[in-house]
Design a protein that fits this description.
heterodimer, A: 171 residues, mainly alpha, 7 helices
């Protein structure tokens, strides 16, 4: 198989090799950690919004959940930025893996769901504990499933960190 | 202690996790989803304790805590399976040891919440300001859980030295 010259150029760039090979904890370890942390808040907050819309913890006022959306967006953009950095570090590995494109499609769909959910939450009259519409519930379930799937597909193209360990640096 | 760990590592469950081509990956996904559930539920409650999203009565968000406990148990179970499947990766791994210390701190902090501020916090209405001790406990909790995640992710970068024969 021939590798796209663009991938090779990207992979041999200074930034790419710094992320892959630097012994700094801010390089691969830090970027990967930030990516996981933001993923946790993204999937976790989506889950809470969905649980409430489906009728769990009914005393949470639906309209007050608008305060959760800045968290979602912050987490989303941190994930986008760290994701791009990880892609720069391992372009060939990711871009030749079909699962990676499925993951991107899932993320794009999940991101498109966020503003729709936000509108529904803003317009909701469900504060007094009345049941939400089927459409709202469906959208909430979809968003959780999509974020879970995005997390899952992460496990299918893991970044192996076998290159270097702080404890055997001296060895 | 070491004998117990070695015995656990020889059990068929541990061997299965170690050798199955998919068990480890599935457990990793379960572990990631568990941490998301924990951050989403306990993390949001911590933020409310710290004064964020004041329109929500703390008691309402507190209904999410059982989901967080379930998430913690899921991660305790999947984490224990990682440990018995590959103890050599975790024993002497400073990131893992640090994570255990953090989890102990988390337990103390949870006890502090229920013993010191639970009653006044759960009595607050929408818009109610949480007392200073509750803000501090919420901040510590959020900090600890984020640190647990960081320590867990760092385990891969602090693999212990192989034991010399």
């Amino acid at each position: 198989m021939t590798v796209d010259p663009f991938f090779l150029a990207l992979e041999s760039s200074a930034l790419s090799s710094w992320i892959r090979e630097s012994e700094s904890l801010l390089a691969l370890p830090g970027i990967l950690t930030l990516h996981t942390l933001a993923m946790g808040f993204l999937a976790g907050t989506s889950l809470v919004i969905a649980l409430r819309l489906l009728g769990f913890a009914r005393t949470i006022p639906v309209s007050a959940m608008e305060r959760f959306f800045p968290i979602l967006w912050l987490a989303f953009w941190i994930n986008a930025a760290t994701g791009v950095l990880l892609l720069i570090a391992y372009p060939t590995k990711a871009l030749t893996n079909p699962i990676f494109y499925i993951k991107l499609a899932i993320i794009a769909t999940a991101a498109a769901v966020i503003p729709r959910l936000r509108r529904l939450v803003g317009a909701s009259g469900a504060d007094a504990g009345e049941p939400v519409t089927r459409k709202t519930a469906l959208l909430a379930i979809t968003s959780v499933l999509l974020w879970a799937a995005a997390t899952r597909s992460d496990g299918c193209c893991p970044i192996h960190t076998t290159g270097f360990s702080w404890s055997n640096r001296a060895a | 202690m070491r004998m117990v760990i070695f015995w656990l590592a020889r059990t068929s469950v541990a061997a299965f996790v170690r050798h199955s081509p998919w068990a480890w990956a599935v457990l990793e996904i379960v572990h990631l989803l568990g941490l998301s559930m924990l951050l989403g539920t306990v993390g949001l409650f911590d933020l409310r304790l710290m004064g964020y999203a004041n329109q929500i009565p703390p008691k309402a968000l507190h209904h999410l805590v059982p989901v967080g406990i379930a998430a913690f148990l899921i991660n305790l179970a999947s984490g224990s399976l990682f440990f018995i499947a590959s103890p050599g990766f975790y024993i002497g791994n400073i990131a893992f040891e640090f994570k255990l210390v953090l989890l102990t701190c988390a337990a103390i902090n949870v006890a502090a919440f229920y013993l010191v501020v639970r009653r006044p916090v759960l009595a607050l209405e929408a818009g109610g300001r949480t007392p200073l001790p509750a803000r501090i406990i919420g901040g510590i909790s959020l900090f600890i859980w984020i640190s647990v995640l960081v320590a867990g992710r760092m385990e891969a970068f602090f693999k212990p030295l192989p034991i010399q024969p």
